[in-house]
Each structure stands twice: as structure tokens, then as C-alpha cells.
Amino acid sequence: MDSTKGAIKIDQDQTAKILIVDDVPGNILVLAEILYAKYEILIATNGVEALEITAIEQPDLILLDIIMPGMDGYEVCSKIKEEPTSRDIPIIFVTAKNAPWDESKGLEIGAVDFLSKPIRPQIVKARVKTHLELKRQKDELKNSAQRLEQMVFDRTMELQATIKLLSNEVEERRLAEETAVRNARLASLGTLAAGVAHEINSPNNAIGFAVATLTRLWHGFAPHINEYRQQNGDMDICGISMEEAIETISTLVLEVGNNSKRIAAIVTNLKQMTKGDMENLEQKVDINRALTSAVGILDNIIKKHTDHFKMDLKDNLQPVKGNVQQLEQVFINIIQNGLESLPNRDKSVSISTKIDNSKDRPNIVVIVHDEGVGIKNSSMDMITKPFYTTKGDDGGTGLGLSISKTILNNHQGEMNFQSLPGSGTKVIIRLPIEKLVGGSML
Ligand SMILES: Nc1ncnc2c1ncn2[C@@H]1O[C@H](COP(=O)(O)OP(=O)(O)OP(=O)(O)O)[C@@H](O)[C@H]1O
Ligand SMILES: [Mg+2]
Fold first, then answer.
1. Nearest ligand 1 atom, CA 390
2. 441: CA distance to ligand 1 center in Å?
């Protein structure tokens, strides 16, 4: 025997632990002697000690004396039953002969049985064995219930994960279908647009030619009509005065001319949009040269919009694989947008190029920075959509950025916008540099 916290522990390497609680050591010895051969015995000589040992050792069964100084057996039993960690430990009350014993109270507060003194070894062994077996079965039931609960939980989780996976798949399939339908619609729209563009081109060319001739003739003719009016007095033409009629004809001829030019621009853009894929994208494009060429084409527009046009091109850029005309078209569209955004000629547009090696594949970065009116956050998603324009009155078709985006996509490039309304916009274009082997592109 050895002692822990005043309790004598007889270790017989048995799994079941029995706590004997009694204030009379002689009584403890009687019970311990009966049981120690089969069980691990723990001993407490008062209620407080019994609660401490129960909390630490978690015995499988407690033999509890009722009459003890301080905390009596009923109170110890109630406290053990209050604790969730110990409430399932079976308690057998040990009652003294002739001592007042309230069996129903004992059972009510949670005792499973009682033994009366004098102790009879066979009865003690039998009761202890029975209650330990009952506890073992109860524990097993509890464990299987817990295992079942865990299994149900695991299965529910698995099912939830499967449902999520399935709904993701359904969503992906829905998006793929949507994209396929949209692409098919765009493809047929493209074909339609190309057809319409072609059909519109000839009559519009005729209108353009007719308007040019009309304008020229009218400019020659109008002064004579004016002279006639001044000599012979004004006359009524279709309900308006001759003077008003001369002015109206001048304005209308100009308007027809401008609108014909706008139609021509839309036709050119539509054609550009539809022929995009068919052009040779295998040329070696020198980006600095394409930019310089775009700026050359825009010369008059630059002069019209700003006194501060700047270029800062990095020397010796590696070429990009693609189509020179298409990339020039992108630069023209974006630089022109920058110029058109300027509120006055004091504001600047600057263009720069650089290499960015921070990504998996090196990129050439072109930045077009304007000090223009900027783009509202709420419009950002719209500006690259076909026909979105805020320049309807000035002949904008709203196709510039949409075409540029398609061209850049075909070149594995991208275009991003950073803008502060009122301060200006930075358009950042990235194009991947192709590796060169023996002078030819990979
Ligand atoms: N740098 C910029 N600053 C401010 N707004 C811009 C800028 N670039 C584009 N936008 C806005 O995006 C719209 C769409 O541009 P996009 O180039 O596609 O068409 P557009 O310039 O209106 O017409 P088009 O280019 O066909 O003549 C413009 O109308 C303008 O509102
Ligand atoms: Mg534009």
C-alpha cells in the first residue's frame, strides 16, 4: 500500500478503480481487503477528500459511508452527481447497523444501491461486480452513441461538401453555357456587322461624295442668292425667310457631312472588329516604333488639344509578337481618348514605355497618362463595352476601347485603367515579350 493525499492506494494493475469513503479506518480496511485482489482501491476518510480524489482519479465506482463528521454521505453524493464529469460514477451507500438510513432519499439523490454493515464479502463482491458491469455497458452505449453521432456528423459534412461541389459544377456549367451562347451570338453578330458595314459603306460613300460636292457648290452659290436677296428684298421660302433658309441649308449640309463621317468611322471600326482574328499576328512589332507612328498619325489632333505632349520611350525594347497595324490602332484609340479628355491645352498627355520582369513572363508596359476629366468608378465597367460613349455629340462611336480590348486579348496582352475624376487617367497596357531564338520568334 502507498499513500496519496491521505488515501491508501492498493495497485493491483486492475482497470476498475474503486473509491472507498469512510471516516473509520477499520471499516475501510474491511472493504479494501475484500476488493483489493481484483480492483485498484482508492481511499478517502472524509467528504472533502472524497470529492478531490473523485475529480482527479475518476473512479469507476464509489463505496460511500453515510455518517461522517463534516460533510455526510448524502452531501458527498449530491456534489458528485452535480458534476458532469463525475455524475455517471455509480455510488453504493454503506450503512451502519441500527443507523438511521433513508433508502428512498439515497436513491433519489443518485445512489445505485446500498450495503449494510456488518459487511458480507460475497455480497460486496457481487454488488460491486454487478454495478461495474452495468457501468461498463452504460459507458459502451454512450461511446457507441457518440461514435454514431460522429459518423452522422462526418457523413453530413461529406454530403454538404458533395452538394457544394455539385452546385459549383452546375454553376460552372451554366456559366460555360452562357459564355458559349454569348460567343455564338457575338460571332453571328460579327458576321452580321461585317455584312451591314459592307452594305452601308457604298451608299455612305455616295452620301459623303454628294455632300462634298453639295458643300462646294453651295459655297459658290450662297453669295449670289444673298446678293439677289439684298437687291430684290427677302422672299418667303416654304414658310421661312430667304435669309433663314440660307442659314438652315448651310447648317444641314454640314450636319449631313459630319454624320456621314461618323457612319464611315463606325463602318471602319466594325470592319476592324470582325477582321481582328484573321490578320497575321506573327509579325515582330517594335512597340516604340508603333507608338511613334500612332503619334505621327495623331499629329493634328495633338496640336488641337494640348501644348504639353510628352514621350518617354525606353531604348532597345525587345519586340512583341503580333500585328503592327492592330497595335498601332490600339495606341491611336487610347492616345486619342487621352487627348479628348483634356479640358484645356495646358493639361498634358504623356506616353512612356518600360519593361516589367516581375511576372512569370516579361512584359512591355505602355502607359498613356492624361490630365483629363477622368473616369467615374461607376463607368469603369462600361467603357470597354461596344458603343458606350460620352462623346455622341462629337462623333464618338464608343467602339475605340472595345476594339482595343479585343486586339490586346488576341495578343495575350491586357489593359488596365487607373483614374481619378477631375485629375486624369492612366491607361496601362501590357504585352508579353516573345523569346527570340536565332533571330526568329518562338
Ligand atoms: N482617357 C480617358 N479619360 C476620360 N474618359 C475616357 C478616357 N478613355 C475613355 N473614356 C471614356 O470611355 C468612353 C468609351 O471610349 P471609347 O474610346 O471606346 O469610345 P469613344 O472615345 O467615345 O468613341 P470612339 O473612340 O469610337 O471615337 C468614352 O466616351 C469616355 O467616356
Ligand atoms: Mg475613343
1. 29
2. 34
Global confidence as pTM:
0.52
Whole-number average pLDDT of the chain = 87
| Strand, coil or helix: 286 | coil
CA torsion, points 384, 189, 412, 296, in degrees to nearest 10? Answer: -60
Cβ contacts of 230-238, under 8 Å, gap ≥ 24: none
Map out the domains of the chain as residue ranges: 2-119, 183-276, 280-441
Q: What is the whole-number distance in angstroms between the Cα of residue 341 and the centre of ligand 2?
A: 10
Amino acid at 127: R
User: Which helix (H) or strand (E) covers residue 54, if one does?
Assistant: helix 47-57
pLDDT of residue 184: 62
Q: Is the CB of 333 under 6 A from ligand 1?
A: yes
Pocket test for ligand 1, best of 381, 389, 393, 419 (most atoms within 8 A of CB): 389
Q: Which residue pairs, CB below 8 angstroms and at least 24 apart, start in 116-121?
A: 117/27, 119/30, 119/31, 119/34, 119/94, 121/34
What integer pLDDT is reported at residue 7 of this predicted model?
41
Ligand 1 binding pocket includes 101 (Cβ within 6 Å):
no
Query: How much of the chain exceeds pLDDT 90, in percent?
Result: 59
Report pLDDT for 100.
66
Give ion ligand 2 contacts, CB < 5 A: 337, 400
Q: What's the CATH code, domain 280-441?
A: 3.30.565.10
Closest ligand to 390 CA?
1
> From 3.40.50.10150, 3.40.50.1170, 3.40.630.10, 3.40.50.2300, which CATH number describes the 2-119 domain?
3.40.50.2300
